[in-house]
Specification:
The complex is a heterodimer of chains A (481) and B (467). Chain A has 481 residues and is an alpha/beta fold. Chain A has helices spanning 7-16, 21-39, 49-61, 104-111, 154-161, 178-184, 218-228, 272-287, 300-318, 338-344, 351-362, 373-393, 416-424, 427-432, 460-471, and strands at residues 42-45, 73-77, 115-120, 167-172, 187-190, 210-215, 258-262, 291-295, 396-400, 436-444, 447-455. Chain A contains 15 helices and 11 strands. The longest helix of chain A is centred in the C-terminal third of the chain and has 21 residues, at 373-393. The chains are: A alpha/beta (481), B alpha+beta (467). Bound molecules: zinc ion. The site of zinc ion (ZN) has 8 residues of chain B, from loops.
Amino acid sequence: MNIKISALQFTRDVKSGNISAEDFIAKTMEHIKKLDGNLHAFLSLNEKAVDQAKEIDKKIKSGEKIGQCFGMPISIKDNICIKDTKTTCASKMLENFIAPYDATVITKLKQQDAIFVGKVNLDEFAMGFSTEFSAYGPSKNPWNMDYVPGGSSGGSAVSVSAFECVASLGSDTGGSVRNPASFCSTVGYKPTYGLISRYGLISYANSIEQIGPLTRTVEDAAFMLNLIAGLDPNDNTTVDNNNEDYLKDINSGIEGKKIGIIKEMIGEGINSSVLSATKDAISKLEGLGASCEEISLDMIKYSVAAYYIITATEAGSNLARYDNLRYGYDFSVEGYEFNSYIEKARKKFGPEVTRRMILGGFVPSAGHAGKYFLKALKVKSKLTRQINDAFKKFDLLISPTVPILPFKIGEKINDPVALFLIDINTVTANLTGKPAISIPYAISNGLPIGIQLIANSMNDKLLLQAAYALEKTVKLPEVPL
Amino acid sequence: MTKIGLEIHSQLTKLESKLFCSCKANYREFEPNTNICPICMGLPGSLPRLNQKAVEKATIIAMALNCSTPEKIAFFRKNYFYPDLPKNFQITQLNIYGDTSVGGTGILMVGEKKIRITRVQLEEDPGRLIYEGSSEKNLVTLVDYNRAGTPLVEIVTEPDFENPREVREFLNILSDLLENLGVSDPSLEGAMRADANVSIEGGNKVEIKNIGSFHDLEKAVHFEITRQQSLRSRDIPIIQETRHWDDKRKITISSRSKEEDLDYRYFLEGDIPWIKIGNQVKEKLKSEMPESISSKKQRYISKYGIPAQVADVLSSDKFYSDLFEDAHTKENAKEIANIITTDLMGLVDTREKRAASKLKPSHLQEISDSIQSGKITRNSAKNALYEIVKTGKKLSDIISELDLGNVSDESELSVIIESVIFEEPQAVEQAKSNPQTINYLVGKVMQKTKGKADPKLTLDLLKKKIR
Ligand SMILES: [Zn+2]
């Protein structure tokens, strides 16, 4: 049996009786057990997955009503709550946290008969871009095990890329879905802010982050969006999408569409093969009838700084509850002495979380807020104004997802320019709430390159149509497992 | 000059659920930590789900305090560590970055005096800390999160009070107002709390916190004024600080905490989008607002001719005015008002007695009708009322059970009057020369009938027999 198929192909095959959910899940679990010792995409596995698949098959045989997933194996980033399942955020602080409830996306997928094969790795509390900050060790890039898979949703990207599942849910705060998708050659999609409920997603920087699917194809991403998008009474920031069908007319093409090439995202420091892949993608789009033109959004040069200040501020607040009283508790009640408590309160956080918590205590504090936090908010609103203006002229914006190639595990990046480059192309969509998608586009020296498309708010359908058109122009080699 | 300002916290006890989840707003009847859920416990991944009703009630309060109400309101996070705060931040409101709280500046009149309201804001109440253990060694702090996330309205005043008496009057008026609005039951334990700030002669401002009741608030303010005056008279500087009210020793003590230096790192709560409260919504809320106490009072006076003092008592107490509204007709209004403010008052003067009372508006109608038709006397009515509050029985049953019916039978009454005339020859003589004193004899008849004699008939018969 071939498990290297798309999510939609899986649903068609199970529906038609070509394959059984049980066989597919069993084979997938076997595959995970074989590969994941090295890849380390998973933090925990669902031991009941095969039994759940049996139930699906039974339902199909008896002609019972069945959800649109038909037992589709999905992996879930370990910062999204599944009831009665460990949800660790790849942190020692939540090592033993068992979620007592389902995230809204989980509830919706359960209703559609999805099967969660396991919880996947991330940088601790989603802070990072390589999974190297996971308290449980990094995941590896299936394209080259010496390289990072990107992050923070690295486990999601690895599991999809290495056929350990057919789709995954990650979360994207500053590129955390698109970055690993680009590094592992999968589709990674961050929808318009508010399109997918965040209820049950453990907050890092709640005002800009979204749950997003990582899939093998653009169609699969649209399919996933159909299942999980829409208003949720449990998340006041969700928006009504009028039950939009994102799969319908996905092959509409992009003829006559105007696409802006963001100048600041192909500037200094960009890797030459990334640049040529981008130019190639632009000419392909023009070949399909789109017109492309360069545009400058000069606030982008401040976007990374603003991004780190805003995320640190929100993280400092969102993670304040992990205070060793309620989570990560590790010494006995007897002699719970205040000073020794305070000393240990945040001990279970790893270095990156600690760094951002300290920053988060500083940048919004009295006397410093004006210089940092309030300035960052100003950048955010100016950037939003600029991109809104750009969308008056253009239907879509294009850039490479990440201007550099994946880097080696342990290759400590200390060069500020390189650090800047990792985030520069992805944070804008988060700061402005716009939908953005990374499409696998090229392989350079065995390392993947992704192309990013950005659309205006609530133009997710148009974005997916353009991504679909671009995807159809490329044929990429299979991951060398 | 003494300047006193207040910060009042009032729970919206009349709401069904908490501010951000569907747990009960009335947390008082639960075993510790049983009125909780992932949201009010701030569990990882949970998000606040704003209770729209709470926004409406808070807006109504702001409007009743004549506050400006902005087009759009927002929520902020106040970040600080405390074990009673599940998320280690409180979701509250702030006017620093423009008026985004439910209420801006307003005014509440205390008699002739204007008290300026600084702002009204909606926020979540923390949980409760309970300290147990008798000695240092076995001291434990227990946390009960049942209260965490219940809706709280903070009302801040300008330092417009000049003495503790004004503070007390204001709090009485405010608590009547909140009760009349149907948003809060101020008599519930912990439903209304207040902090005060005090300065004298333009000196430094001192905050007093931890005041458990309004009664203590007046005392605390009084103590603080005296303390500051005594420092001043000895040329000792008054430092700007936060002091805690020690409710056992009845003094304020310097809290010596870093509280004043706490940096709350306020920023917008991104999980709750801005809420538009447009003119249409405001008009709707206004139209649904219960009649104000002062308008009720005016109506009672002008429409029914109820004396001002009675109207005042009746209108400012929601329990009484609700009873009155349900029981009265144009004809019996004065009588009902009278029964409530003279006879009922002593019977239901506490929250517990009110809760236990079996009295229905229909009872008041029965009583009023029976008095007017001469079935019972005013005096018997009082005894009947006592029974009704206790048992909720029908008035007619109580009259027969307790034999409260009027002695209005002429022959029966005549016998009693004859005996009084026989026993009181002196008074009879006096009444003959001075008809005013006949009331003494009426009183004697009442005594003999335990107040059941029909007063009009008694007087007529007496006059006839003495003549
Ligand atoms: Zn709750």
